[in-house]
Inverse folding.
């Protein structure tokens, strides 16, 4: 079991890994070794996720999620297969943790009467400072 949060744990059988050749520089090693990891997690069919978390997870995944609700993470930052596996798993866990955070609904508020008065007094004081910088008016 992979522990994500206090309430969410993933079974290792839910995560499918396949190894592919990484793109980019790497010399001869890049043509011989399949060090990149393609991690697949079926969020739509996961029994360990609640419906709201599942919906937020698929929405947060964006392009990484397929139409069927499978999240695909490709990790090829590192030269070793094992480090890329860890990186892909860490990225999946971070995505699920972000989706598990409760949505905070913003309640619109109004400024208090005292804060409105303080704002007006500050504006008036600033206007006086700027007025003192002007050239004095010529008396006719």
């Amino acid at each position: 079991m992979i522990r994500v949060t206090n309430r969410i744990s993933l079974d290792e059988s839910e995560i499918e890994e396949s190894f592919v050749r990484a793109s980019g520089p790497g010399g001869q090693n890049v043509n011989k070794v399949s060090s990149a990891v393609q991690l697949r997690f079926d969020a739509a069919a996961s029994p360990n996720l609640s419906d709201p978390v599942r919906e937020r997870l698929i929405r947060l995944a964006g392009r990484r999620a397929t139409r069927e609700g499978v999240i695909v993470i490709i990790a090829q930052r590192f030269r070793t297969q094992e480090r890329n596996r860890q990186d892909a798993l860490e990225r999946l866990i971070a995505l699920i943790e972000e989706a598990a955070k409760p949505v905070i609904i913003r309640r619109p508020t109004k400024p208090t009467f005292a804060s409105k008065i303080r704002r007006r007094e500050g504006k008036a004081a600033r206007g006086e400072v700027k007025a003192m910088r002007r050239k004095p008016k010529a008396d006719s």
Summary: The chain is about 40% helix and 15% strand. The helical segments are 29-32, 51-61, 81-100, 113-133. Strands lie at 2-3, 9-10, 15-20, 36-42, 70-75. The mean pLDDT is 81.
